[in-house]
Amino acid sequence: MKYVMLVSHGTMAPGLHNALTMLAGEGREDIFSTSLENGMSSSVYAENVRKCISGVTKEDEILLFGDLVGGSPLTTAANVIAEQELMDRTVMVGGMNLPLVLSAVLMKDTMETEDLIAMLLLEAREELKEFQITNEESEDDI
Question: 24 CB contacts (<8 Å, ≥6 apart)?
C-alpha cells in the first residue's frame, strides 16, 4: 500500500488531513498526519510519528509531505522512518499545500511513484497563482 503522511509545525498537517477527508473521503486508512505543536519536545513528536507509521510494512511505500524543506517536523519524521528501516520506500516532499496532497491521495495508486512525484511537483507549482477579480466594465464603457 502507498501511504500519504503529512507533517508540520502547528496544526497545518492535521488541518490538511481534515480537508482531505472532506474531498477524498472519510475513513481512509492510507492518510496519516501529525504535527510538532508549540512547546512539544522532539521526543514526543518522534513518538507520534512512530505511532502513525506503526502499521507500515517494508512492502509499503510512504509519500511524506512536510510544510518546510529541512524543517524539524520533516527531518524528525525522516529520522524515525529511517530507524524503522523504511527510508528506501519513502519519498519526501517539502512545501505541501492542499492541491498537492489531494492529487497525491487521489493518484497514488494509479501511477509509479517516480512519475507521480514529478507530476505532483509540476501541478503544485501551477496551482500557485494570484487570484484577481476584474471589473466587468472596460475603460471604453466609461
Answer: 31, 102, 105, 106
Q: What is the pTM of this model?
A: 0.89
Which residues does 47 contact at the CB level (< 8 Å), separation at least 6? none
Q: What is the mean pLDDT of the chain?
A: 94
> Within 10 Å of residue 74's Cβ, how many Cβ atoms?
24
**Percent of the chain topping pLDDT 70:** 96
How many C-beta neighbours within 10 Å does residue 33 have? 22
Is 34's pLDDT higher than 70?
Answer: yes
Are 75 and 46 within 8 A, CB to CB?
no
Q: Vertex 80, ends 71 and 114: CA angle to 5°?
A: 75
Q: What pLDDT score does 136 carry?
A: 76
Domains and CATH numbers, the chain: 2-132 (3.40.50.510)
Burial (CB count within 10 angstroms: exposed 0-12, middle 13-18, buried 19+), residue 20 = buried
